[in-house]
Amino acid sequence: MTRLSRALRAVALATSLAGLPALAPSASAADETGAQAPKQYFPLATFRVGAYASSGIPSWAGIIDYLRYLNEVEGGINGVKLFWDECETEWAVEKGVECYERQKGGREGSPVPVFLPHGDPVSKALTEKSVADKIPLLTTGYGRTEAIDGRVFPYSFTVLFSFWSEASSVVNYIAEQVGGKDKLKGVKIATVYHDSPYGKETQVPLDLLAKTYGFENIQIAVPHPGNDQSAQWARIRQIKPDWVFLRGWGVMTPVAIKTAAKTGFPVDRIIGGIWSGSEEDVRPAGSVGKGYLAITPFPAGQDFEITKKIKAAIVDQGKSDLKDLKSFGSVYYNSGLIETIIAVEAIRTAQARFGKRPLNGEETQWGLEHLVLDEARLKQIGADGLVQPLRLSAKDHEGGGAGKVLQWDGAKWTIVSNGWVKSDRELLLPVIYERAAAYAKEKGITPRSDDTAEASAQ
Amino acid sequence: MSFFLETLAGGLLAGVMYALVAIGFVLIYKASGVFNFAQGAMVLCAALTFVTLTERDVPFWLAGLITLAVMVTLAVAVERVVLRPLVNRSQITLFMATLGLSYVIEGASQVLMGASVHELDLGISDLPVEIGPIQLSSFDLVAALAAGALVIALALFFERTRIGVSLRAVADDPQAALSIGIRLPVLWAAVWAVAGFVALVAGLLWGARQGVQFSLTFVVLKALPVLIIGGFTSITGAIVGGLIVGAADALAEIYLGPLLGGSVSTWFAYALAVAFLLVRPAGLFGERAIERV
Amino acid sequence: MPPALATLSGLGAGRRPALPALPARTAGLALLLAVAFVAIPLTATDYWYNAILIPFLIMALAGLGLNLTMGYAGQASLGTGAFMAVGAYATYNLLLRLPELPLPVSLAGGGLIAGAVGLVVGLPSLRIKGFYLIAPTLAAQFLIEWIFNQVGWFSNYATSSAISAPRLVFLGHDLSSPAGRYALTLTSVTVVTVVAWRLVGSQTGRNWRAVRDGETAAAVIGVPVARAKLSAFFVGAAVSGIAGALWAFAYLGTVDARSFDLDRSFQALFIIIIGGLGSLSGSFIGAAFIVLLPILLTHLSNAALGGALDGGQISNLQRIIFGALIIGFLIKEPNGLAALLGRLRRPAC
């Protein structure tokens, strides 16, 4: 009896904590508005610690600087100011879930309009919870590809550029370089990928594209974390591909560039994916990174209209969240800026229907599914060239599906593609819908029909 | 054939980089019987200190000296705060303590020096050089030379200095060593300091290759199989173990990987280590008989 | 060390007067089950279920599994994460491919398969012992993670080799709400803990302890050493396997092999070292410590330091404190928190 009762008493000890009043949510909100009007809560799940902190830190700065800019210059969204707090996830799934649970209840009377999971594994872990809680997950440039089908995944928004679109746009960019899609036949494209679910996401679309266009599709895995790749690049030296599509994460990218240079593979024939295309990825590779290409939905640069406004109102006033100002206008900084613009515009769209007040997740979900960011609207925001034109619907949670190609000149990125490189969405979407339907069947989900999307928001 | 040789050479050179990390483990294991998981954090700490200094225009040699001073201070602190109170405790407890230590060192390094990625340019070109039929990088050759120099320096240190002789005495028979008046605390601090120096060399070479960032701490995971194969107590073993692991990883990835779907190097070294452990429990160059039934 | 220790010992102290005089064990047990099964479902919020109670119970179970292998039978293992992964993937495949099986049977089946894998991983223990045993268990850790990542069959060829929970239904009840998942977790943990408790009190448990305390002596007095070692690996891995299945389905909902990486194994190791090797209650106390401490530290540092430091600094400071606490416990309380709490409670009884 002794051991069992002791064991169970231990459970009681720990669980009796549950009887305590729930710990108050953190008090570190960047509460910056003095007005009495109700404010919109905007939770941030951050990772400023751990192996990926260097990529996270500039992104939060992009988010926070834009929120500050909105509050200080534009007076919030239609007069509704924003406030936020941070929860540290260390990019670990279980901590991300804990943050989501901590933040999802809202704060100071404001519900949560949208949640930015910032991590492929955690976004997958939250897929079902978010449906139960009616909180949209906004995943820009990552997340479950099948979630493009909002009829099956009502609360997951793989907005902008899914991994499938990423693969397709890279193939299309290569097609442009070799003189058209009909010239792709026989071209060797080797995909060097991080051996994880994220890394493998592009295998199916590349297979399909290879069959369609006749290029040779070679897949080479790099085990996590990827700090030694001599074997992989020795193989590439042997295969002699025409192009390498590099889908890395963290330290894998600089090591790949260095090892490529070491084995004599031309760096300007490597196209990095979304998460291999930041300053933080290339800079550690040093001078050999010159000429390296990357596709991204987050073009770097400081010359966009909105970026100039933020610089004048926030950065130059010493109010930026950036500690190291050289990251201003970087890929990660702009990624934070872009996802916040999308979230804010979705809230704005929903406000037009539900009223100018703090919104909940269900209302913002309606806003996201009716979001239209055309050239004209993007010009108004000052984000043309920065954000690609988007039109979301229940059937299409991606909207854009295009990226720009950047080239590293040794010190900064320059845009080398002719505008946005589009993906073959018409080819990919049927397969994506098929997979979403299979998921729905396995999970026993009855997909919404396109028109009930409207009704369900009521 | 030349492809095989090239893969082998590339693997062996990668193995040298593993060996550099493994040497730090061997030193500490010899002196205090700990598998020091914090060695990875020490590599990060050393590289981060060094690169933070050089980014502030501190000359190369001075930055090296200051970093060394930091590592020595760290070694003394570790001896005082962690090792001394845990004397005579089980190996697994000591191992856990170094896990805790790695958290402290990683956290402290990042509080003080930030979490961003730094470029570290040692001024050694990392471009291919053709040597006969195979192609190598000059950087790899420098790394191999550095490892060689380090081994010679450590060998001399252990042959010629008092601390070195004491260390061998302790490794042979701790009781006897104590009874003839060897002061363990001093010895421990000294050995941790030397391990700090080794961490600095490893941190610089690894940092130049992949950038100075948090993931430097991951290199420890490759060190354990290196140690099992080479033996926990032998520096020569660490080098040979490193070479075996590097070569085996590269060859397995090339020849076995395509058959099995890639990424075999995440476990291949460990499988090899288990095989060694079953056949030759003390490792190739291990001195002490390890526990086995 | 102060905040968490103070909290835990404070709680111990707070509960002391509530303990009745002598039939304390039975009454304490009843009280505890009442709290866990009745009081909590009446009061807990989603946050408590999803972020604290469920992960705490599951990690306690994972720790319990490792404690059986390592704490009771003395066989070091860094493969807990791998065993959890096997449990999760095995349960997933049972639920998927044999839908007629009721949920508890699939869960138990997943545990047994994990146990069988644990048995194989434990085979080298017949030749290697002590610290060196971490090598084969680490090999298993990496190999198993790799297998689930590579072999599509295990994840039913999902795009990204991630598995997600099929509907959790038992006897017509849908268990997918937070309260339902808590009930599933709590029931499983209670049942497994009872079985483990019976086991450690049985001849098998005595054999384990005999092997741990001295193999040669155990062999001399006729303990079947090899069988004891292998059974310890089997049972420990089976318990961890059930924990893994719960982690996947009752906690996260969707997992891939990386959810069960080496960090998870380290976490289990921390739990039993801090809680107490060779103590069932230690697994629970250690899990409470590991799961709650970071959350507590976040709240405390937010309250104390608020705007003074940015999030990154606070998180790094937490990392330092966490590491220092582990070292502190190893130095000051080698038998774990279970022993510490035992000492605190004794004067009152």
UniProtKB/TrEMBL annotation, chain A:
<feature type="signal peptide">
    <location>
        <begin position="1"/>
        <end position="29"/>
    </location>
</feature>
<protein>
    <submittedName>
        <fullName>ABC transporter substrate-binding protein</fullName>
    </submittedName>
</protein>
<keyword id="KW-0732">Signal</keyword>
<dbReference type="Pfam" id="PF13458">
    <property type="entry name" value="Peripla_BP_6"/>
</dbReference>
<feature type="domain" description="Leucine-binding protein">
    <location>
        <begin position="46"/>
        <end position="410"/>
    </location>
</feature>
<dbReference type="InterPro" id="IPR028082">
    <property type="entry name" value="Peripla_BP_I"/>
</dbReference>
<dbReference type="InterPro" id="IPR028081">
    <property type="entry name" value="Leu-bd"/>
</dbReference>
<comment type="similarity">
    <text>Belongs to the leucine-binding protein family.</text>
</comment>
From TrEMBL, chain B:
<keyword id="KW-0029">Amino-acid transport</keyword>
<dbReference type="InterPro" id="IPR052157">
    <property type="entry name" value="BCAA_transport_permease"/>
</dbReference>
<dbReference type="Pfam" id="PF02653">
    <property type="entry name" value="BPD_transp_2"/>
</dbReference>
<comment type="similarity">
    <text>Belongs to the binding-protein-dependent transport system permease family. LivHM subfamily.</text>
</comment>
<feature type="transmembrane region" description="Helical">
    <location>
        <begin position="186"/>
        <end position="206"/>
    </location>
</feature>
<keyword id="KW-0813">Transport</keyword>
<feature type="transmembrane region" description="Helical">
    <location>
        <begin position="94"/>
        <end position="116"/>
    </location>
</feature>
<keyword id="KW-1003">Cell membrane</keyword>
<feature type="transmembrane region" description="Helical">
    <location>
        <begin position="12"/>
        <end position="29"/>
    </location>
</feature>
<keyword id="KW-1133">Transmembrane helix</keyword>
<keyword id="KW-0812">Transmembrane</keyword>
<protein>
    <submittedName>
        <fullName>Branched-chain amino acid ABC transporter permease</fullName>
    </submittedName>
</protein>
<feature type="transmembrane region" description="Helical">
    <location>
        <begin position="60"/>
        <end position="82"/>
    </location>
</feature>
<feature type="transmembrane region" description="Helical">
    <location>
        <begin position="136"/>
        <end position="158"/>
    </location>
</feature>
<keyword id="KW-0472">Membrane</keyword>
TrEMBL record, chain C:
<dbReference type="Pfam" id="PF02653">
    <property type="entry name" value="BPD_transp_2"/>
</dbReference>
<feature type="transmembrane region" description="Helical">
    <location>
        <begin position="76"/>
        <end position="95"/>
    </location>
</feature>
<keyword id="KW-0472">Membrane</keyword>
<feature type="transmembrane region" description="Helical">
    <location>
        <begin position="22"/>
        <end position="42"/>
    </location>
</feature>
<protein>
    <submittedName>
        <fullName>Branched-chain amino acid ABC transporter permease</fullName>
    </submittedName>
</protein>
<feature type="transmembrane region" description="Helical">
    <location>
        <begin position="232"/>
        <end position="254"/>
    </location>
</feature>
<feature type="transmembrane region" description="Helical">
    <location>
        <begin position="101"/>
        <end position="123"/>
    </location>
</feature>
<keyword id="KW-1003">Cell membrane</keyword>
<dbReference type="InterPro" id="IPR001851">
    <property type="entry name" value="ABC_transp_permease"/>
</dbReference>
<feature type="transmembrane region" description="Helical">
    <location>
        <begin position="130"/>
        <end position="148"/>
    </location>
</feature>
<keyword id="KW-0812">Transmembrane</keyword>
<feature type="transmembrane region" description="Helical">
    <location>
        <begin position="48"/>
        <end position="69"/>
    </location>
</feature>
<dbReference type="InterPro" id="IPR043428">
    <property type="entry name" value="LivM-like"/>
</dbReference>
<keyword id="KW-1133">Transmembrane helix</keyword>
<feature type="transmembrane region" description="Helical">
    <location>
        <begin position="182"/>
        <end position="200"/>
    </location>
</feature>
